[in-house]
Amino acid sequence: MSKTSHSSKRIVLSSLLGVAVIGGIAAGGLAMASASAPTEPTLENGSARFTAPSDGKAGSLTFAADVSDDSGVKGVKVIAWPASSKLDPTEAELRNVDSAVCAKTADDTSRCTYTLRVTKAEAAELAQGTWYVSALATAVDGGTTFVPRAATFDVTVTH
After folding, report:
1. DSSP-based three-state secondary structure for 157
2. Does residue 125 sit in helix, strand or coil?
3. Parallel, antiparallel, or unpaired for β 59-68 and 42-51?
4. C-beta of residue 10 within 8 angstroms of C-beta of residue 16
5. What whole-number distance in Å separates Cα of residue 43 and Cα of residue 120?
6. Which residues neighbour 34 within 8 Å (Cβ) at sequence distance 6 or greater?
7. What confidence tens digit (pLDDT) does each residue in 1-30 have?
8. In the chain, N or C terminus with fewer CB closer than 10 Å?
């Protein structure tokens, strides 16, 4: 498999190979200047869908969720991985993966969407069956919420 400069493809490649390139990264603490602890963001309505490539067109993996926090939403990090790989990413590992695009829907809520283009060659090498999406939501005030299985989807590719 050739290397690619697209960061979104790195996620598919690392998921597909079962390699946790993000493993071994030490979790850093976050110092808070205020005496009160930040609230944790909420991640709701998470859903994922895989569309296989067909008729010369690329396929895709799309994950979307509503994220809320009283301080606002800073961002969401996302990784998809096959259940058969037993990867089970941690919160610390998710700090270094691709980000979803978040669009503000209210003062304290954003709709965050992650879309990954999947070529026919990449799809042919994906593990068939159940996949999970892990997500790490971060609020403006620094609060975080890690959802190890924010969504589940199935990969079915006809060869």
Report:
1. coil
2. helix
3. antiparallel
4. no
5. 31
6. none
7. 333 333 333 344 334 333 323 232 222 333
8. C
User: What span, in angstroms and rounded, lies between the C-alpha atoms of 55 and 17?
Assistant: 26
Are 126 and 155 within 8 A, CB to CB? yes
Helix-, strand-, coil-residue percentages of the chain, each rounded to 5: 15, 45, 40
Indicate the residue type of 138. T
What b/e sequence results for 102-133 when a residue is b if at least 16 CB atoms lie within 10 Å of its CB, and e otherwise?
beeeeebbbbbebebebebebbeebbeeebbb
- Which residues make Cβ contacts (< 8 Å) with residue 122, sequence separation at least 6? 9, 12, 13, 16
Tell me the one-letter amino acid at 157: V
DSSP letters for 20-59: -TTTTPPPPP---SSSSPPPPPEEEEEEEEEE--BTTB-E
pLDDT digits (tens, 9 = 90+) for 97-135: 999 999 999 999 999 999 999 999 999 999 999 999 999
Identify whether the C-beta of residue 39 lies closer than 8 Å to the C-beta of residue 30.
no
Cα gap 100→65, rounded to integer Å: 10
